[in-house]
Design brief:
Blueprint (H helix, E strand, L loop, with lengths): L1 H24 L18 E6 L3 H13 L6 E7 L3 E3 L14 H4 E3 H8 L2 E4 L2 E5 L4 E4 L3 E4 L2 E4 L3 E3 L7 H4 E3 L3 H20 L10 E5 L3 H18 L12 E6 L10 H13 L2 E5 L3 E5 L2 E4 L4 E3 L2 E4 L3 E3 L1 H4 L5 E2 L3 E3 L12 E3 L4 E2 L15 H19 L14 E5 L5 E5 L2 E5 H12 L5 H16 L14
Parallel strand pairs: 1-2, 1-9, 2-5, 9-22, 11-18, 12-13, 12-18, 13-14, 21-23
Antiparallel strand pairs: 3-4, 6-7, 7-8, 10-19, 15-16, 16-17, 20-21, 24-25, 25-26
This protein binds flavin-adenine dinucleotide.
InterPro entries: FAD/NAD-bd_sf, FAD/NAD-binding_dom, NADH-Q_oxidoreductase
Organism: uncultured Rubrobacteraceae bacterium
Keywords: FAD, Flavoprotein, Oxidoreductase
Length: about 475
């Protein structure tokens, strides 16, 4: 009997403990004023366009800074109801990382922070009426507006790029690249005669961090994940090219790290061509300046980034190449209540003597998001002492396969397997969804023992 009571007490304690744990992991949302009646009737509406690195940071910071107030409401409007965790996008190509963990649930994260979210495609801003227009005739009023609509690929007007290459501007793009590789393997495994070289040649154009990572991910996909499933295809028949117009790949990195990356790529038999400018891309060939041609039906374009075209259409002061013109407080020129941050804003880098702008990176967008939140609040409160933006690069991490990375963190440079572990830890802690953190960590651990099962789930856009 005594034992029965003890057992009951232990079981009861366990159930209560698990209930408490569940409640802690699933906190009650702190609904924003926009969500409570009278809906949207409060003093200051802060509208944030874009739920990426810049917009998400600005929104969550503003919510934190106004936690004890109910006169400020934050509403985020974005085209997608997920947050793309860009550093992990190339990992989707090899199936090292599952897409759903890279596309983080944006609505839930914002609601938990105390902001509101509406999925809508922004089409215009009317500064005189202080409204943002969105597709479907929607209008959203604002008192303060923060624009962080990101970037898009820049094709530099090179003939054939847009028609014949795959881009890397999102989770779907990465899936498309993976599907293309699998598609070619399936096609080639059916061909009995000579296989055209163009089928198994993959050309990645752009030797920046994204291009280097994508070329490595294709190598991993081919050699580690697909080769055992396609015994009739010799993986060494697959050729992977990395093409860069500048004299070096990873130009923003220290020369020693660049060398380490290049040696790694050569060891993986990735053919690196530097000082090579793509002049034209056709359905089965990349033509380089100087006359060299590479037969390929598979081109991946990572060579250029420019501000989102939507921003161009907003009618704000804008430079086609660099983005919305802002001052150092991140305020849009001639607009006291509009701010722009991230890849779509031309923010001057005060440390550059040539007057150049801050590079389009996640860390810059996050730092700008923090400052924009503080400056918006100061403006609302009539405290004119606005902060000015000073970019503080923390370093760069580039992963080349699951067991090698080249990292520079606050001036410290390191490469190899430990650098790859650091890459994984650094980005794992930055994922904002607890579920994704657990799943990504579990996938990586399982991946040490079992190679990922790679399947091709086709959508109509892959046809
Ligand atoms: C493949 C890849 C890998 C990268 N890896 C790294 C890395 O490792 N480290 C690093 O520092 N940087 C990296 N970057 C760069 C980094 O991702 C960007 O600099 C950063 O995301 C910029 O933040 P943002 O807020 O300006 O834009 P984003 O994060 O791109 O967010 C843009 C937001 O705007 C929304 N949006 C766009 N158009 C509309 C519209 N018309 N209406 C409504 N909403 C719209 C989108 O849905 C999204 O929510 C990478 C970029 C790519 C493409």
């Amino acid at each position: 009997m005594n034992r029965l009571v003890k057992g009951g007490l232990v079981l009861g304690g366990l159930v209560l403990g698990l209930g408490a744990l569940r409640r802690t992991l699933n906190p009650t949302p702190r609904y924003a004023p926009w969500e409570k009646p009278p809906y949207g009737e409060f003093e200051k509406k802060v509208l944030i366009l874009g739920g990426g690195f810049g917009g998400y940071t600005a929104a969550t910071d503003l919510c934190r800074l106004t936690r004890s107030r109910d006169d400020v409401g934050v509403l985020v409007i974005a085209r997608d109801n997920f947050f793309t965790f860009w550093p992990m996008v190339p990992g989707i190509v090899s199936s090292d990382i599952d897409s759903r963990n890279v596309a983080q649930p944006l609505r839930r994260a914002l609601i938990l922070a105390g902001a509101s979210f509406r999925r809508a495609r922004v089409t215009g801003v009317d500064p005189d009426r202080r409204v943002v227009q969105a597709a479907g005739g929607l209008e959203f009023p604002y008192d303060q507006l923060v624009i962080s609509l990101g970037g898009q690929p820049n094709f530099f007007g090179i003939p054939g790029v847009e028609e014949h290459s795959l881009t890397m501007r999102g989770v779907e793009d990465a899936e498309r690249v993976r599907n293309r590789v699998i598609e070619r393997f399936e096609e080639v495994s059916l061909i009995r005669d000579d296989v055209p070289e163009s089928k198994l040649t993959f050309v990645v154009i752009g030797g920046g961090a994204t291009g280097v990572e994508v070329a490595s991910e294709i190598h991993t996909l081919v050699h580690e994940n697909l080769a055992p499933d396609y015994p009739n295809i010799d993986p060494y028949r697959v050729r992977i090219y990395l093409i860069e117009a500048l004299p070096n790949i990873l130009p923003e990195l220290d020369p020693a790290l660049r060398r380490a990356a290049r040696i790694r790529l050569l060891n993986e038999r990735i053919e690196v061509l530097t000082g090579a400018m793509a002049e034209e891309i056709t359905g089965d060939c990349v033509k380089l300046k100087g006359g060299k041609e590479i037969d390929t039906e598979n081109v991946i374009w990572t060579a250029g980034n420019r501000p989102n075209q939507t921003v161009h259409d907003l009618g704000l002061p804008y430079d086609q190449r660099t983005g919305i013109k802002v001052d150092l407080t991140l305020r849009v020129e001639d607009h006291s209540d509009i701010w722009a941050i991230g890849d779509c804003a031309a923010v001057q880098d005060v440390h550059r003597e040539d007057g150049g702008i801050v590079p389009p990176t996640a860390q810059a967008a996050i730092q700008q998001g923090h400052l924009a939140a503080r400056n918006v609040l100061k403006t609302i409160d009539g405290n004119g002492d606005l902060g000015e933006f000073e970019y503080k690069p923390l370093g760069q991490l580039v992963e080349l396969g699951s067991d090698f990375a080249v990292n520079e963190v606050m001036g410290v440079r390191f490469t190899g397997a430990l650098a790859a572990v650091f890459w994984r830890m650094a980005y794992l802690v930055r994922l904002n969804s607890p579920q994704s953190k657990v799943r990504v960590a579990a996938d990586w651990i399982v991946g040490i023992f079992l190679r990922p099962a790679v399947t091709q789930i086709r959508s109509t856009s892959d046809e």
